[in-house]
Every structure is written in structure tokens, then in C-alpha cells.
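Predict structure. Input: Methyltransferase domain-containing protein, 212 residues.
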Amino acid sequence: MDAVYRNQRHIYDLTRKYYLLGRDHMIGELGVPAGGTVLEVACGTGRNLALAARHYTHARLYGFDISAQMLKSAQTTIARKGLQDRVTLAEGDATDFDPETLFGVKSFDRVFISYSVSMIPVWKEAIAHAMEVVAPGGELHVVDFGQQDGLPGWFGKALHGWLAKFHVAPRADLGAVMAQVAAAHGAQAHFRSLYRDYARYGRIVRSSTASS
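Output follows.
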């Protein structure tokens, strides 16, 4: 990942804003409680964490990424926004991270994953692991590419072909997997398409009585 992002990280946010649709929608729906904690899995450049910090001014935010190169950009973003006292960053693997080791925090009120499951080979394990660190009464939010079912066939075919060049694979069964993860935790899953299925957005709500 460092090889991929060593140079891309400098233009990542500028280019991705045109086609990573739904990120801001998800952040607006996090509904972080006052004084709550937020974790972004695979935080990339820190763009989403900075936006979430602006939305939820009383929240404490955490983020990690497997790429040390991307974390350099994230650190720059957070410093530029003056958020060092509210945002903590670390290097970690989405499928095998220990939040207590990384941040000294056991669980979080909100956990989100933005356009990363389409890049993680063992993405199902990443979602399942993310759910493990959601606090009782907390939520896991995921947004990523859809299947473009409501768009012209040529558009979806062209998009998928282009994404494949960057080892990005939209997950057609994202909703089903999130439903399975929710059921395993006695939680409720909510899933819908955005922008004529350009993107898909899922939310798992954990019971407030669930064991942490």
C-alpha cells in the first residue's frame, strides 16, 4: 500500500472528491453523541476525520491506516486543521487491530469505513472485526461503491473496468454481509443505495444492552 500511495497521497483528496460519493452523507448521519468516540477504519488522508470533527465538535476521534505514507498525509491534514488535541492517528491493519494497543480505548460509539472494503482483499473479516469494537448502543457505518443498477449499463461497465486497474472491486454482497454481521451481534442492519446505486450505505446499530 505504501508503494501505491507514496505519490498518490499528494493528490488523493483532490481527485477522489469527484467519485467517492456518499462520504459526506455518511458523516452527516453518524449522529455522534455529545462526548462520544469515533473510529475511522482505514482513515487514509484524514479528510473524513477532519470533516467529522467539524460536525461533532465535542467528540473524540481516532483513525488508523495500514499505509504509513497515507498517515503522513493524515497527520498533515489534522495539524493543518488544528485538531491534534481531538484526533489520534495510528498505523494498523483493518482485519487485525487492537484499539487498546493503538489508542488505549476498548470500544467506540461510532465506527465507520469509507470506500475501503472495495480495496481490502479480506473485506468481510474487516467488517466483522470493526463490529467487535462498537460499544453497546453504538453504530458501525460503511459506505462504498454500489453496482450502478440505476445507471446506464455502459457507465457501470466502464467504472468497474477503470476501478479494477487500481485493484478496487465493488462488493455486490455488501448488504448481505452486513446483515450477517448484525445478526451475529443481535444488532439491527439498515442498508440502502445512494445516487441511483452509484454508492451503497449500510449502518449496523448495536443494542444498548449488548455485551462490550
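Residues 2-205 form a domain with the Rossmann fold fold (CATH 3.40.50.150).
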